[in-house]
Task: inverse folding
């Protein structure tokens, strides 16, 4: 076949006796967009890392344009025409767009950086992408969606034949996602082959021609996107039979208000936001990126210095809020940025679960190891956390297990109100479903939960009631059964003038 | 069902402990060092020499245990040598010049040290001054103060009891300083493993942002850790004074190096959140044994410094390499 760009045969990789990838074949044609699906730990990252030269396969071969290649490292693969955009940005915040796009291969003249060429190369790359971003702007001044474009432009500089995108939409809102998907189609039409890694099922038919599902390190299926329904894909990914989407009947809301926020404002991001949370309620907080969801939770939790407004807990106002104080009063917050703010990567799963409990449900000075162990094993069992031992460093667990541990930390401290900021971000489908069950179960036990999510289906599925946040202000208040994704999205994107 | 789950949990727990027992490599390295020094010099592996090693180890060892907490919390303290010198000088002035009684002088000296340590802690916790900078400044400030106080002359302290408590021998055999070292190991070990404060030190070093959100009193932890370090340094200063029978501003030059080196050799990560008192104990013995062995073998004094430096480089290399392996 003449238009075959990439051809992998029998790729196998093991880490310390764990087989991450086993005998995987993977072919990619010119201009093809291939979705790569699978749970966390299914082998997607390993496959990407083998193709892009970050790892060497234990066995198997990689052919690029019919020639066998053995990458000495990521930069060799890059020079050979394989570009990767990782989920975590690799931009330097303080440098300009042009400098970032050309990062690592700045054209030089007489040993000094040739700025004219830098701008020229960057301009060409952005043009290829068909977007306009000011070349001289500092990357840190750009919105997240534009940073993502800079990241892709950077990958396009070496004229790659294969472009690998690892969860490129996880930080974007729906409208930005649409733009990005259209962009990817355009790139493909110019002959670039794309490997598109994503957890978001509904994006697949919009962007991909074909899809490959990995499970437990093995290739389960490769087929045309058009020939398969999203339910079928979901069951291929999870390895369990198809399940029809369930809807939870919202329960009768308790009248007892446990938390009330009044007129919360913060530096132009929040404008007099108010809401109330009842006992045992799951309250969804929906809104576009930048609408102030995270800031609202952080203000209530006392993390944002300089926010104004009143928080009333069980009828009495909390003065001078701080995370410590709110925790002591039974309110916990799990951050959106799990790696940066949530976990203690080098500490064990057990320590990660126990930090907030100590000094609260556990004594302040001496540890009681026996009680700690009991708490940890209870949390591991009830949240279904999978780890080789309670002492396993949490940084080596999958995103879903890390998230469960962070929630477990709040539960271990016996907190009654949980503020969950994007708890399902970067979590695989199966773990997501488990998290929904966990959240519903906690609500049934009387714990009150605020649930922030960019995925509107989740709000509809998990919450008793949803609030729509727009430009830092809380507008609509929708019952769970009515909070269909379409309706919530329409409300979230509604223009100001309609309302006022 | 639940019993079964508990059983497998137990097995995997034990397996985790064995896999996580990084000190095994260290113990092997220590063993090899002892074997080679013993074969090289017949004087090395004798009771009296081993006790002498422990006595010498006490000066920097007590500081190294505290340094372990400092480095685990994500900080560093390079002012310990100067702190020890200031403590020694203060003791000499208070007793010889001011006629203060010994116990009161010791309390004043240690309290001052704790205060100075808290100061760098406050600078870190409330004003964000990195401890690398603040303790580098203190490295000069405290040494300078010691020299100002004493004009760089030793102040003789001739109290037999002080001499005994500092450099005497229990039952005419075991150096008292070695007992202090043991006590320091047990106390810091207990603090690190069995107290909420100790675990908080690991949490703060592991991820300070997550620690804040988890309700750990991050500032208090940082301040107390720096105070403990200064306190340990002043104890080392007092011990040195007793050995020399004088308050002295020129002691403990390079103390920070041996203390940091022992901590790093013991496997404590400079990035914070990871390290053990047991590992540091092995690091202390390794350094003390190596220094002692080199003297016994008549190694050139300048060459000894080269060896010291190289050992630390090797230790850092091993740490980084091991850290990388566990992450991937």
Result:
């Amino acid at each position: 076949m003449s238009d075959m760009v990439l051809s992998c045969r029998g790729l196998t990789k093991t880490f310390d006796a764990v087989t991450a990838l086993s005998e995987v074949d993977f072919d990619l044609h010119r201009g093809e967009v291939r979705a790569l699906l699978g749970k966390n730990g299914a082998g997607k990252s390993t496959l990407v890392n083998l193709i892009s030269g970050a790892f060497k396969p234990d066995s198997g071969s990689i052919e690029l344009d019919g020639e066998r290649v053995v990458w000495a490292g990521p930069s060799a693969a890059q020079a050979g025409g394989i570009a990767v955009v990782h989920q975590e940005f690799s931009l330097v915040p303080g440098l300009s767009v042009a400098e970032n796009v050309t990062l690592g291969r700045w054209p030089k003249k007489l040993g000094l950086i040739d700025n004219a060429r830098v701008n020229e190369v960057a301009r060409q790359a952005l043009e290829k992408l068909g977007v306009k971003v000011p070349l001289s702007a500092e990357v840190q001044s750009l919105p997240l969606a534009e940073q993502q474009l800079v990241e892709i432009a950077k990958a396009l500089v070496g004229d790659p034949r294969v472009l690998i995108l690892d969860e490129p939409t996880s930080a974007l809102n729906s409208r930005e996602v649409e733009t990005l998907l259209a962009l990817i189609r355009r790139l493909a039409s110019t002959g670039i082959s794309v490997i598109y890694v994503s957890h978001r099922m509904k994006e697949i038919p919009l962007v991909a021609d074909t899809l490959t599902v990995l499970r437990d390190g093995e290739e389960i299926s490769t087929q045309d996107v058009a020939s398969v329904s999203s339910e079928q894909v979901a069951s291929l990914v999870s390895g369990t039979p198809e399940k029809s989407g369930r809807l939870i009947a919202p329960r009768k809301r308790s009248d007892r208000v446990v938390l009330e926020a009044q007129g919360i404002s913060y530096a132009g991001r929040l404008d007099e936001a108010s809401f109330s949370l009842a006992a045992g309620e799951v309250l969804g907080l929906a809104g576009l990126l930048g609408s102030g969801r995270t800031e609202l939770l952080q203000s209530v939790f006392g993390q944002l210095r300089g926010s104004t407004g009143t928080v009333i807990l069980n009828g009495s106002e909390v003065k001078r809020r701080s995370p410590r104080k709110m925790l002591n009063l039974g309110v916990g917050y799990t951050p959106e940025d799990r790696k940066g703010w949530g976990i203690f990567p080098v500490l064990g799963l057990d320590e990660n679960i126990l930090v907030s409990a100590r000094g609260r449900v556990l004594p302040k000075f001496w540890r009681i190891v026996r009680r700690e162990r009991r708490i940890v094993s209870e949390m591991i069992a009830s949240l279904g956390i999978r780890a080789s031992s309670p002492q396993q460093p949490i940084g080596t667990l999958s995103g879903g297990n890390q998230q469960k541990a962070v929630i477990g930390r709040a539960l271990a401290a016996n907190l009654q109100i949980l503020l969950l900021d994007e708890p399902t971000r970067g979590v695989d489908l199966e773990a997501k479903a488990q998290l929904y069950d966990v959240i519903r179960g906690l609500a049934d036990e009387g714990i009150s939960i605020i649930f922030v999510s960019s995925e509107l289906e989740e709000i509809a599925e998990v919450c008793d009631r949803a609030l729509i946040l727009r430009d830092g202000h809380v507008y609509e208040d929708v019952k769970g059964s009515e909070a269909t994704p379409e309706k919530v999205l329409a409300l979230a994107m509604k223009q100001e003038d309609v309302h006022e | 069902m639940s019993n079964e789950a508990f059983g497998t949990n137990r097995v995997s727990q034990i397996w985790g402990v064995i896999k996580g027992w990084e000190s095994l490599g260290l113990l092997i390295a220590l063993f090899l060092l002892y074997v080679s020094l013993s074969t090289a010099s017949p004087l090395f592996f004798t009771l009296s020499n081993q006790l002498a090693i422990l006595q010498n180890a006490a000066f920097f060892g007590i500081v190294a245990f505290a340094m372990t907490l400092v480095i685990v919390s994500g900080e560093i303290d390079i002012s310990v040598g100067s702190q020890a010198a200031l403590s020694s000088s203060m003791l000499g002035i208070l007793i010889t010049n001011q006629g203060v009684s010994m116990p009161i002088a010791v309390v004043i000296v240690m309290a001052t040290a704790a205060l100075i340590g808290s100061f760098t802690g406050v600078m870190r916790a409330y004003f964000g001054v990195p401890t690398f900078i603040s303790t580098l400044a203190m490295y000069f400030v405290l040494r300078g103060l010691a020299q100002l106080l004493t004009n760089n002359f030793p102040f003789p302290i001739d109290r037999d009891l002080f001499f005994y408590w500092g450099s005497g021998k229990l039952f005419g055999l075991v150096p008292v300083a070695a007992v202090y070292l043991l006590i320091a190991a047990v106390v810091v070990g207990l603090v690190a493993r069995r107290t909420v404060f100790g675990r908080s030190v690991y949490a703060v070093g592991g991820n300070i942002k997550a620690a804040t959100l988890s309700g750990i009193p991050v500032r208090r932890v940082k301040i107390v850790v720096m105070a403990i370090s200064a306190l340990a340094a002043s104890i080392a200063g007092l011990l040195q004074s007793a050995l020399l029978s004088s308050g002295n501003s020129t002691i403990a030059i390079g103390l920070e190096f041996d203390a940091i080196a022992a901590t790093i050799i013991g496997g404590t990560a400079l990035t914070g959140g990871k390290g053990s008192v047991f590992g540091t104990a092995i690091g202390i013995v390794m350094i003390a044994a190596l220094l002692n062995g080199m003297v016994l073998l008549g190694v050139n004094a300048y060459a000894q410094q080269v060896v010291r430096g190289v050992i630390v480089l090797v230790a850092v290399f091993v740490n980084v390499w091991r850290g990388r392996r566990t992450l991937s």
Notes: Residues 242-246, 495-500 of chain A have pLDDT under 50 and may be disordered. The radius of gyration of chain A is 24 Å. Chain A touches chain B at residues 15, 301, 303, 323-324, 327-328, 333, 335, 340-347, 351, 354-356, 358-360, 362-367, 369, 377, 381, 388-393, 395-396, 409, 413 (CB under 8 Å).
